[in-house]
Amino acid sequence: MSCVHVPLDLLLTFPSPFFIARLSSPRMPHTRIRPSRQHPLTSRSMLVFHLRTSGRAHSYSGRGQNTMERIPLVVRRMVAAEQSCGFVHFFASLADASATPLVIEAKAFSSAAAGGAADDAAPTYQLVYDVMRSRNGHILFKKSYAERFTHSLALAAPVHALPAQLRSLVQSRLQAYIESPGVYLDGATERNVKLLSWIPATAASTTQEEAFPIPGIVMLVKSSYPSESMYREGAKLGLLFNAHRTNPNAKVAQMGLRDRANAYLAENDVYEVLLVHDAADAYLVPEGSRSNYLLQKSDGTWWCSAEEDILVGITLKTTYRVVQACGLGSVQHAKLTLKDILESKSLFILGTSPTIMPVQSVLLYRDTETRRLYEEAVRGLGTTAGTVQQVSDDKAELLFPVNVELAAALRAQYFAEAASS
């Protein structure tokens, strides 16, 4: 016998016979549903059902069509593409303190994502998310990530009221998720955790303040951590021209930009791309596609992009303390352009997966078109690059020396900060 916790508001979306017929459909053969005598309705938000199957217990696979229809197609596709876990937790509202997550097998999203085509009449959503690192039963900087996630929600829908307890609820639900049996695959003890919510696009434009449900999914995602050799040799980066975020201060997904960045990474075998704005923005380079960066100028000072141009991430805030603890002074902020990149002494990439990682090279251009864009930028900025290696007529990269001892010290201090947080 298996127990399924079904949020009451999910039942109320449809007439009860219809909902129960769906749960006992051929998708779940020989299944009989009855209200639990042992677990009566104990709160307004929860019904508990037992699913009795012929001869053996089955865990609920999440294939009920009504459940998946509550999750937008774009979200289902994202989960299908990114998940690396046994189960995901789905909340009809993260802000409902009495709610228990609906546990859905991650593999169920593969068929749910394929079962629908784009509909121009379907509502559009802002996808608000954050990604954090779980390690040996703990989420690094969990409190800080919960604060940033709620901040992103507030930016995405500024006139809506967020409950005061949302931050603490997010923290407890993240921890409960990574402690759930069967979540980690193949004995893994370290994975990135993604918390994802979706808000109708109209929520950002309405002028009426009101409370609203905050649906959410928590899942482990495919995680790629740099090899030890990358911390010694440095990462390879590239430049993605005419690329920028519409709201850099919040973790709001831009699928088109993400697709462009992913294609560049795959085609050029680099770890990350730096986003280069156009001439109208003086070729600003505020951040990477999924990271911040730190550069050291020729005078030895350390710099990061202006705070209004980036999401001041958890890793960046930690880096402030790390740099000071290593006796390197303080990190300063300014509007950094391609000129600053080309004239810098050293470069580091900052993020959840890489932590603080040195950079060995930046691919400046890779074909005729990107060479044209690069040369236009160099002329417009009146600068020249440092050590450039010409790979071919239409391919060149900027090289940086890697201080192995400094890189090791910065990384060690980062994990020391994580342990004390």
TrEMBL record:
GO terms for biological process: carboxylic acid biosynthetic process; carboxylic acid metabolic process. One of its GO terms (molecular function) is catalytic activity. Gene3D superfamilies: D-amino Acid Aminotransferase, subunit A, domain 2. It holds the Pfam family Aminotran_4. GO terms for cellular component: ciliary plasm; cytoplasm; nucleoplasm. Belongs to the class-IV pyridoxal-phosphate-dependent aminotransferase family. This is Aminotransferase class IV. It comes from Leishmania major.
